Amino acid sequence: MRNLLRLIVPEAMPVSYKERFRAATGALIGIFVTGVIGHLAVGSNAALPALIAPMGASAVLLFAVPSSPLAQPWSILCGNILSAFVGVTVAMLIADPFIAAALAISLAIAAMMALRCLHPPSGAVALTAVLGGAAIHDLGYGFVLWPVASNSIVLLTLAVLFNNLSGRRYPHSIRSQPASHGTKDPAPIQRIGFSSADLDDVLKEYDQVLDIERDDLETILRRTELRSYRRRATHLDCASIMSRDVVGVAPDDPLKTAHELMRSHHFKALPVTNDNAEVVGIVTQTDFLDKASWTNGRPSIGLIQRVRLIFSGKSAPNGTVKDIMTSPVKTVSPETPIEDVIIMLAEQGLHYLPVVDANNKLAGIISQSDVMVGMLADKAAT
Q1: Whole-structure pTM over 0.90, yes or no?
Q2: pLDDT tens across 47-67, in order?
Q3: CA distances for 333 relative to 70, 256, 337, 358, angstroms
Q4: CA distance 103 to 292
C-alpha cells in the first residue's frame, strides 16, 4: 500500500507555510477582484458571463507558481486568446460536440507550442468555446474579447501587482549573470562540473516539456554543485584569512585621491566608508574604467555618467568617489565561512568583499586571492 501511495501521491515540495498562504491569498484576491470587475462591466446583461471557469486554473499558475514558463504574461494572454479563437472557429465548423471538443484542444495545443505560449488553462478555454452552450455560441468571436481577453488582462494585472508586492518577481526574469570579460573563457561558476552544452544535450535527449525555465534549471543545478563543494570544503572563516590593515576612502574624497591610493598600494578595489567607519560602497578599477572619463591622465565625471546620476536621483556629481562607487555593496562578517564566500564570489562574479562587524563597520576585506591561499594553506595543514 505504501509503495502504491508513492506512485500516486507526489513528494511534498519544500515550500513554507508562508509561501502557501501567499499563493492562496493571491488567488483569493485575483479571482474575487476579476469577478467583481467583470460583474460591474456586464451589469445585468445575462448574455455576457462576468467570469469563466478557466480563470481559476490560470490563477493557480499565476499565484502559486509565478516562476513557471507556463505562467508568464505571454503564455496567459496569447494562450487564452489563441485557444478561444481556435475553439470558436472549430465550434462554428463542426456540429458534433465531441469531435469539435477533441479537435479544438488538439489544435490549441499545437498552436500554443508553435507560438511558445503554452498555458494549460487555455485548453479549458478552447473547450468552453465548444461546450459552453448557447450563450457562449451566440457570442461568436466576441467570446475571444469578452470574457476571455478581458478576464485574462485583469487577472494578469492583479498577479503582477500582488506577486511583486508580496516579494515574488513577476513576470519572472532570470537572475543577471556576472559581467562577461569579452573572452572565450566561461564565467567562473561555469568552469566547474557540467557545461551549459551538457545541459542542452540532456534536455534534447529528455525531449519533454518541463515546467521550469531552462536557465532556472541550470542555476539550480549549479547551486547544488557549489553547495556540494561547500559541504566537502574546509571550515575556515573570513577572520582567518581577511586583510585587516585596510586602506579605504570616503564618499567625498576626490577621484584623484582614490586613484592614487589604488596605484600606490597596487589595490584593485577600495572600500568606501562614512565618518562612522560604516561601509557604504566600494570603488574598483572597473568603476574607474566604466564610469569615469580621463583627461591628461586624471579621472573626472563625463557626460554619460552625469546623465546616469541625474536620472538615478543622486546628488549632483562633483568629481568625488560617490559619483562612481558601487553602492549598495555585498559584504560578509568575520564569522562567515570561507565556503559561503566561495559561492558569493563564483555566483556573482565578484573579486572583493568588504568584511564588516555587527554594526556594519569595516573590519577587513577579502579577495579571491585570499580565499585561494587560505584553502591551499588549510589543505596543506591537514
Answers
A1: no
A2: 789 999 999 999 999 999 999
A3: 40, 30, 9, 8
A4: 62
Interatomic CA distance for residues 265 and 374, integer angstroms: 22
Give the model confidence (pLDDT) of 82-141 as tens digits. 999 999 999 999 999 999 999 999 999 999 999 999 999 999 999 999 999 998 999 999
Return the pLDDT at 318. Answer: 75
Amino acid at the residue 342: I
Residue listed under C-alpha cell 469563466: 52
Grid coordinates representing 243?
Answer: 586583510
Q: What domains does the chain contain, in order, with CATH numbers?
A: 2-165 (no CATH), 188-232 (no CATH), 238-381 (3.10.580.10)
CA 280 to each of CA 274, 315, 334: distance values in angstroms, whole numbers, following the listed order: 7, 15, 18
Question: Where would I find the H helices in the chain?
Answer: 2-8, 17-42, 54-59, 73-93, 97-114, 121-131, 134-139, 142-143, 150-165, 196-206, 214-232, 238-241, 255-265, 285-291, 303-311, 338-348, 368-381
- Specify the DSSP class assigned to residue 322: G
Spatial distance between the Cα atoms of 121 and 105, rounded to a whole number of angstroms: 11
Cell match 564610469: residue? Answer: 291
Q: Angle formed by the axes of helices 73-93 and 121-131, to 10°?
A: 20
Would you list the DSSP string of 326-337? B-S---B-TTSB
Cell numbers of 307, please? 546623465
- Dihedral over Cα of 111, 117, 119, 125: its sign: negative
